Amino acid sequence: MGADSYQAIVIGAGPGGLATAAMLTRRKVDTVIVEQAECVGASWRSRYDNLHLNTVRWLSHLPGMRIARKYGRWPSRDGFVEYLEEYYRRLLLPVQFGTRVDRIEQRNGNWLLRTSGGEISASNVVIATGHQRVPHLPDWPGRETFSGELIHSASYHSPAPYSGRDVLVVGTGDSGSGIALDLARNRAGRVRIAVRTGPNIVIGDRFGIPAQLLGIISQPLPGRVIDFLGLLSQRISVGNLSKYGIPNPEVGPYTRAIRDYIGPIVDFGFVHAVKHGRIEVVPAVEGFDGAEVILAGGGRVRPDAVIAATGFRPGLEPLVGHLGILSAAGRPLVHGPQTHDNAPGLYFVGYKAEISGNIHQMSIQARKIAGAIASALTSKEAPS
Q: Domain boundary residue among 308, 341, 370?
């Protein structure tokens, strides 16, 4: 018995996958979404309780349905999950839940997907499993000797277990700064954050103008100009944080996003908490020694708990690592409507850090990918 066949298969029922499937079905492309979890937006459901989008509501909707005003200017985690559920139901998107995709292979000009539910095939595949799929915890020397609690930020859900405790957050990306602020606002006994690299910081909402809008406006500019404006804006709005222990950034937000896949911190109170001593800054973590954490420069601290906001990996190697389309860092070499010469008909959405907002860009890329697939199918069906 042959594998079920479609014109397009989308892997992942997060924002990027839902948006792309919606645009494909709008173009009458026979499409199915394959999702490992039993629900849409699974990765969003696992984020910490007090998380809010760092992009404004009216620039964060998916194509075909706006986010309702009831979710506020900066939708909460739960509000955004509700929106994704409504998007899935209202647009009647075809999702095959509880199906894990293990490997993608080329066969007879099509793509064959080996899944936990059997084989399925399509002439076009869109991978939308997200760039924050596999938590990355550094192999710090002595890590196994640490007598306190050590978790990755992916396992942090609520400040309640840390009430009155001494907590060290490692990393000043958007997750690290957000978790440190969540702890500081909710009665953690002491909150410290370990900093290795000076972060790019933008004020979330300044004079009623969301930072995201400025990011969108600046997109057509050359990268070096975006970097210059970003660094200048940070000096004006945030000031010099080096006296508080946070180094000034060495590169601007555009270069950091392109080179390191790290977007800027969108600040909703982190800087204020640092300046007022509610979050203490310490040097980078170098290792562990029993109850102590060893810091760069030789200093030591004895926290009750360490939360490592040390990033994620896409985890695409088992799926497509054999196709020669990933960088040394495991990220796709192409994105959006582009396909690699080694893999025609295979697309990726949601694997870039964007200064204009990841959800906003996923929506744009979803339209472009759907257009590229529809055009390819039309060309294939046209008489020669």
A: 308
Six token digits for residue 120 = 């399925």
Distance CA 93, CA 21 (A): 7
Residue 102 CB burial class (10 angstroms; 0-12, 13-18, ≥19): exposed
Helix (H, G, I), strand (E, B) or coil at 313: strand
What is the tens place of the pLDDT at every residue in 96-125?
A: 999 999 999 999 889 999 999 999 999 999
Give the up-direction half-sphere exposure of residue 298: CA atoms within 13 A in the CB hemisphere.
0
Instruction: Tell me the two tokens of residue 303.
Output: 């926290």
pTM greater than 0.90 (yes/no): yes
Q: How confident is the model at residue 350 (pLDDT cuts 50, 70, 90)?
A: very high
Same domain, yes or no, for 49 and 148? no
Q: What was the pLDDT predicted at 156?
A: 97
In the chain, the number of structural domains is 2
* C-alpha to C-alpha distance for 9 and 115, rounded to whole angstroms: 12
> Are 257 and 178 in the same domain?
yes
Instruction: For residues 184 and 19, give the distance between their C-alpha atoms in angstroms, rounded to a whole number.
Output: 36
Q: In the structure encoding, which two tokens stand for residue 185, read together? A: 């606002």
CB within 8 A of 99, min separation 6: which ones? 34, 35, 36, 115, 116, 117
Residues 163 and 17 grouped into a single domain: no
> What is the b/e burial string over 238-267, where b = at least 16 CB atoms within 10 angstroms of the residue's CB?
beebeebbbeebebbbbbbbeeebbbbbbb
**What span, in angstroms and rounded, lies between the C-alpha atoms of 132 and 339?**
22
Identify the pLDDT of residue 2. Answer: 56
Q: Are residues 14 and 121 in the same domain?
A: yes
Domain carrying residue 124: 4-133+314-381
Summarize pLDDT for 177-231 with one digit per residue, the tens: 999 999 999 999 999 999 999 999 999 888 888 888 888 898 899 999 999 999 9
Residue 287: in which H helix or E strand, if any?
Answer: strand 285-289
Domain boundary among 308, 337, 367: 308
The pLDDT of residue 1: 40
Same domain, 52 and 178: no
The CATH number of residue 236's host domain is 3.50.50.60
Question: Are 74 and 172 in a shared domain?
Answer: no
User: What single letter denotes the amino acid at residue 16?
Assistant: G
